[in-house]
Amino acid sequence: MPKDGIGASTKRREDIRFLTGKGRYTDDINLHGQAYVHFLRADVAHATLNGIETQDAASMPGVLRVFTATDFDGVGGLPCGWQITDRKGQPMQEPKHPIMAEGKIRHVGEIVAAVVAETLDQARDAAEAIVLDYDELPAVIDMKAAVQEDAPRVHDDLTSNLCYDWGFVEENKAAVDEAFLAADHVTTLELVNNRLVANPMEPRVAIGDYAAHDDSSTLYTTSQNPHVIRLLMGAFVLGIPEHKLRVVAPDVGGGFGTKIFHYAEEAFCTFAAKQLKRPVKWTSTRSEAFMSDAHGRDHVTKIQLALDAENNFTALRTDTYANMGAYLSTFAPSVPTWLHGTLMAGNYRTPLIYVNVKAVFTNTVPVDAYRGAGRPEATFQLERVIDKAARELGVDPAELRRQNFIRKDQFPYATPVAVEYDTGDYEATLNKALELSDYAGFANRHAESQARGKLRGIGLAHYIEACGIAPSNLVGQLGARAGLYESATVRVNATGGIVVMTGSHSHGQGHETSFPQVIAQMIGIEPDQVEIVHGDTANTPMGMGTYGSRSIAVGGSAMVRATEKIISKAKKIAAHILEASDADIELKDGKFSVAGTDKSLNWGDVTLAAYVPHNYPLTDLEPGLEETAFYDPSNFTYPSGCYICEVEIDPDTGKVTIERFTAADDFGNVINPMIVEGQVQGGVAQGIGQALLENCTYDSEGQLLSASYMDYAMPRASDVPMITVDHSCQTPCTHNPLGVKGCGEAGAIGSPPAVINAVLDAMHRAGKPVAHIDMPVTPAKVWAAMNA
Amino acid sequence: MYNFDFVKPSTVEEAVAALQDDEAQPLSGGQTLIPSMKQRLNAPGTLVSLLGIEALKGISVSDGVMTIGGTTTHATVAAQADAYPALAYLAGQIGDPAVRNRGTIGGSLANNDPAACYPAAALASGATIVTNTREIAADDFFQGMFTTDLEEGEIITAVKFPIPEAANYQKFEQPASRFALTAVFVAKYADGVRVAITGASEEGVFRWAEAEDALSNSFSAEALSALAVPANDMITDLHGTAEYRAHLCKVLTGRAVSAIS
Ligand SMILES: Cc1cc2nc3c(=O)[nH]c(=O)nc-3n(C[C@H](O)[C@H](O)[C@H](O)COP(=O)(O)OP(=O)(O)OC[C@H]3O[C@@H](n4cnc5c(N)ncnc54)[C@H](O)[C@@H]3O)c2cc1C
């Protein structure tokens, strides 16, 4: 057995290059003759754009060309990858999303013009000479105001600011309403899921390049899914066939969802490079990132839970307003619907569920998937309303959950919101978390805090998520305009080393370490014999990239399937050389042997024979050892877990500190426990950020108030406690070959409700009961709530 | 950033001469000025770096007064101002290591950010701001947000802090920037107590006179119990209301006093 196969906490091999400054990020790429673009961005939220005066700018030193919306003849708008059908069976309203503002400015940060020049400073200087002629319009910011009849329209060609009014499951609505009438207890909660900015450490970068000799274009970009960008930009925006377009996403410094989408800057650089016959580079400043990277979350929700006299959940109903921003970003419509409504059953047996979502256009930056995407929004409201119900009923929140769990013996379990959970054991993670957090010992710690004049509270939250996105035929029925399989080509070289070309993309997840562990295990060689190649459409098979915790579950499965083909072929070669039947060949520890004999061949002997086929079954078998597999999952995977948070509050200042945090997750089988632990810790840090610190804020005029780190609070090391992470509760996925579920988003999904439940628990215990405080629970808000 | 000229004189006289140019501006640690230039919010024609002037660096103590050169970094004060521990502590709370290794006391006081730390220490200590032309009492120096008594081209060469019997700095951080959301510096001298508050007021750093009187009579947190800072002039922003800041003024003053007594 390889010493670093499945289950080994191998150190991340990519970290050597990242930590020694040898990573090769998009901004590290500089092409011969490269020019630079500076985008002039709107500083008002809503305006009629009458004209743009570019003449002075165009004649400034170093300027190659100034572009405005009228320069994109034959260029399409940025496509939306998901169409939602509303309650009445009508398609959502889908406005054009131009590369630059056409006739109207719709959000602060929207591109109105672009200057390409020899240097970036020259481009910036020239941009200052551009004169915009516009008439400001009243901005539409608040979602509920936006859907009023007389609200100003973000898009004049739409009938309203409502993108869609979605009901799920519409047929259940009447039954749900009846169950509420029959309920013994109804708990109601209104809450906001705060708007966030993803803030990956590496800002976005795009470099367009055009090769006249073969009329081909290359885009280097900070993307989580270069093939998706190639398809969307090539087919829908620029009209370049895939064989003339290459998209490269090299080392990418964090994505968190915000680098899934196809952005205007990518299309612009590719387009301008061809026009100017010069490479064109754009590197986002942090300020630009705040107003041009797709934002996350931003839901306003009313949720109601109905219970019977025995405290069983009988029905659940939610009304959500989901902010789309000014345009539909690539996957925006799917987030509040299929990634959110389908998760409303959570870990519970609630038999009747109805979810209504109104997606709304506003004069703000587009909103799209951010770590968890829809699932954190679902989990937060559900786990908050359950805690509120427990408080109202005077029962222990852990026990109310336990009572309503889907039981271990009920899987596979079809929820009333269209998904079927394959496996799970929610009591196991609950018990594990209660044990690891020393739930029973809380009273002592509470007394100790109290003696120091502090409030102390404990809160828990369960979560379920749908990962391993996704069965293509299913998502197609739900409105996806893409398939969601994954691909891998496994190329075995003559001397036995292996290169895996995967359609997955690593931007921090550690694929280069964990993927080889799987192959090492399957063949019985060491992982350092395996190299992972990703991120370049020129040398990887068409794949859908990395998001939705899908890499190991879908991309890893494709790699397993391709490796199975390799092993099957290698056995045939071995059988030929060993003069045995292939059914008798066994592969173990990198050795092929004939069962029941001492005849064997090493892995390298067989791989060499595949490429030097002298003694080879050429009539039956092609030479070479290279296989490709495309894997389309038959279901989502359903990781779940229980998070317990313990906080202390300083009553004089309202400051919340997280004293303890426990995460007990069920990710099914785990390839590299250390990487999984890191993913959970990072996710929890982001969840703590959302719960305590981060808030993207607009004023009523549509100005972005939290437009830099001076006002947008990111979590730092001192905000994040030591986290106890456990993934010993494992109910392997039943439908993928590795039995894996995915772990990338769990931390960000389960932690916000655990933190908020703990804060409110502390206040309750101190005789300051408050039904709810919206995130982030800043010191000022906590203090105000306690002194209301 | 726009183009600019850069000079690095080695004496105060040369620096003052270079600053006669209307477009010239002194540069110290650059932790405030450079970011604003990068954002093109500030466009000096010439930057006159003060960092080549040896006479502006370092800390000395004599006759109960600590004198800190205008270009002394926060890191140096944090490490070497042993004779005035509360001041050393304050310097160690500014920003992060990179900021502390570059940023200077002269730059901080000249900038007079309403959420900056040093103004509270200078005002609470009754410090004297020494320039190339004169000496300015802290009480006269700070004139509201980002405004000081400095003339065009005037350079802070040193700051003189009378060392108190005891002092304490309580900083409550703004969650995003980690500047002071509100911070209080309490300094106890033989002839009375001074309390200066930063981060809270629309008028910038200020002295809380009622607290000073009460504490000069009886130096204990209880002495503050009947007092309250009025909320009218306090800042309301994303991170806290005027009422919250007014409340913090009292809480933090009490904590500073408790820490001393
Ligand atoms: C990330 C970050 C965090 C920070 N956190 C804090 C914090 O928590 N608390 C805090 O108090 N500050 C904080 N600061 C500000 C920091 O302390 C700065 O160093 C300081 O405000 C300015 O000092 P400087 O030497 O960098 O001045 P510079 O940026 O060089 O100059 C600032 C201004 O003062 C003028 N000037 C500089 N020196 C003199 C002089 N000797 N005489 C006359 N005019 C002069 C300049 O012309 C300029 O207008 C932070 C800064 C950053 C970047």
From TrEMBL, chain A:
Coiled coil: none
InterPro entries listed in its UniProt record: Ald_Oxase/Xan_DH_a/b (IPR000674), Ald_Oxase/Xan_DH_a/b_sf (IPR036856), Ald_Oxase/xanthine_DH-like (IPR016208), AldOxase/xan_DH_MoCoBD1 (IPR008274), AldOxase/xan_DH_MoCoBD2 (IPR046867), AldOxase/xan_DH_Mopterin-bd_sf (IPR037165)
The entry's keywords: Molybdenum, Oxidoreductase
A Pfam cross-reference name: MoCoBD_2
GO molecular function: iron ion binding; oxidoreductase activity
Domain Aldehyde oxidase/xanthine dehydrogenase a/b hammerhead: 20-138
Protein name: Xanthine dehydrogenase family protein molybdopterin-binding subunit
Organism: Pseudooceanicola sediminis
TrEMBL record, chain B:
GO molecular function: FAD binding; oxidoreductase activity
Record-linked Gene3D superfamilies: 3.30.465.10, CO dehydrogenase flavoprotein, C-terminal domain, Uridine Diphospho-n-acetylenolpyruvylglucosamine Reductase, domain 2
Pfam families cross-referenced by the UniProt entry: FAD_binding_5 (PF00941)
Transmembrane residue ranges: none
Domain FAD-binding PCMH-type residues, every copy: 1-166
The organism's place on the tree of life at top rank: Bacteria
SUPFAM superfamilies per record: CO dehydrogenase flavoprotein C-terminal domain-like (SSF55447), FAD-binding/transporter-associated domain-like (SSF56176)
Keyword vocabulary terms for this entry: FAD, Flavoprotein, Oxidoreductase
InterPro entries linked to this entry: CO_DH_flav_C (IPR005107), CO_DH_flav_C_dom_sf (IPR036683), Diverse_Substr_Oxidored (IPR051312), FAD-bd_PCMH (IPR016166), FAD-bd_PCMH-like_sf (IPR036318), FAD-bd_PCMH_sub1 (IPR016167), FAD-bd_PCMH_sub2 (IPR016169), Mopterin_DH_FAD-bd (IPR002346)
Signal peptide: none
Protein name, entry field: Xanthine dehydrogenase family protein subunit M
